[in-house]
Amino acid sequence: MNKILAIALLFGSFCFGQQQNQEVEKPIRNLFLAMKTVNPELLKSAFTEDSILQTVTKDGGVKTDNVADFISSVSKSSKDDLDERITIEAIHIDGNLASVFTPYSFYYKGNFLHCGANSFQLVKQNGEWKIQYLIDTRRKENCNRKN
To answer: What is the distance between the alpha carbons of residues 38 and 15, in angstroms, rounded to a whole number?
Structure first.
């Protein structure tokens, strides 16, 4: 009986962990779906009101972008122009804070443009995970294009 209980608890915690990871992934997946389908409402819904977007530059500096400007830029694209293919490598959750690391390959109008990694910080607000902070790297070489 103890073995059955232990297996049931282990399976239950695994299922809960999977569900929790899917909830954390949802705004990230919505971000890239919104880019691909040019859906500004879905794109905006992925972020908190005061979220921060940054990119690490080639010289090691950090460039900050405005989320509203990013949404506006995406809105000017055509459907399927923007295709960022990610692999979720790590998810860490502590209460209402989550960290997600995703290597990616970015394609513009079907052509490979660059690759890199995204580092997301998410917060759970009113029962929903939202992107609070996103920083990425961008390069054209040493890309593993399995994505």
So the answer is: 33
Which of the residues in the chain have pLDDT under 50? Answer: 8-10, 13-15, 147
Amino acid of residue 126 = N
Tokens matching residue 96:
């209402």
State the CB neighbour count (10 A cutoff) for residue 49. Answer: 9
pLDDT at 10: 47
Check: CB of residue 47 under 8 Å from CB of residue 67. yes
Helix, strand, coil percentages for the chain (3-state, nearest 5): 35, 40, 25
Alpha carbon of 116 to those of 21, 25, 26, 104: distances in Å?
A: 22, 18, 21, 6
What predicted TM-score, i.e. pTM, was given to this entire model? 0.84
Q: What is the pLDDT of residue 147?
A: 47
Q: Is 27 exposed, middle or buried (0-12, 13-18, 19+ CB in 10 A)?
A: buried
Give dist(CA 75, CA 16) in Å, integer: 36
In 3-state terms, what secondary structure has residue 75? Answer: helix
